[in-house]
């Protein structure tokens, strides 16, 4: 059972994580500092250091919280039962749109280097929330026997990394890639990897 002191500590820690998320979304990761988090949250810098050993420690917690936010959004956006390739295509389209609408979040999560010694959790796919959505998304392939779990994991990794590559080109504007082209490319990849 949590004591009042533990409850308060978790609440204060959450304030710092939430403030960091809001600053990243508004101003981008490069503008973030412990000083800005302290000012925006109304706490002293020393209070932040009582909960996080450095900025990377705070940012790893912030990243984990953003992953939870994405999973929560997915749960509200994705059909409760995935039955077809079209449903899978819609999920990847949604995910691309999410990151295009949240470019600063994408940049922070996938392009900003953090000190890995401060990393608490493993790979993003190891997140229980993401793993639950992953299993829900691809359950119909497993139940039909068309793919093993290992094959689905490999194929999905290929799709995700392809999507990230296209997102990098789109977000940086280093190519003439348009959202409609990204969408049709992802559809083609999904058909190739999972189609009959």
Give structural notes:
The protein is an all-alpha fold and 196 residues long. It is built from nine helices and no strands. Helix 1 (4-27) packs across helix 2 (34-41) and helix 1 (4-27) packs across helix 6 (103-111). The termini are far apart. The mean pLDDT is 86.
Short characterization:
The chain has 196 residues and is mostly helical.
- Rg from alpha-carbon coordinates: 19 Å
Strand content: under 5%
Helix content range: over 70%
* Unreliable spans: none
Which descriptor suits the 3D outline? globular
Task: Enumerate how many helices there are, as a single number.
Answer: 9
Largest sheet: none
- pLDDT average, as an integer? 86
**Tally of DSSP β-strands:** 0
Element order: H for helix, E for strand: HHHHHHHHH
**Structural class label:** mainly alpha
How far apart are the first and last residues' alpha carbons, in Å?
A: 52 Å
């Amino acid at each position: 059972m949590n004591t009042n002191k533990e409850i308060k500590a978790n609440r204060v820690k959450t304030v710092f994580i939430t403030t960091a998320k809001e600053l990243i979304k508004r101003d981008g990761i490069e503008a973030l500092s412990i000083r800005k988090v302290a000012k925006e949250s109304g706490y002293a810098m020393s209070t932040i250091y009582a909960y996080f050993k450095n900025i990377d420690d705070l940012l790893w917690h912030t990243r984990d919280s953003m992953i939870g936010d994405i999973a929560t959004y997915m749960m509200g956006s994705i059909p409760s039962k995935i039955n077809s390739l079209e449903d899978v295509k819609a999920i990847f389209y949604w995910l691309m749109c999410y990151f295009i609408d949240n470019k600063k979040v994408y940049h922070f999560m996938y392009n900003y280097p953090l000190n890995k010694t401060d990393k608490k959790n493993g790979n993003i796919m190891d997140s229980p929330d993401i793993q639950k959505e992953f299993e829900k998304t691809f359950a119909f392939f497993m139940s039909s026997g068309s793919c093993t779990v290992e094959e689905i994991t490999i194929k999905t990794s290929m799709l995700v990394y392809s999507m990230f590559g296209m997102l990098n080109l789109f977000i940086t504007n280093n190519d003439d890639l348009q959202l409609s082209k990204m969408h049709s490319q992802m559809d083609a990849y999904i058909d190739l990897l999972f189609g009959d």
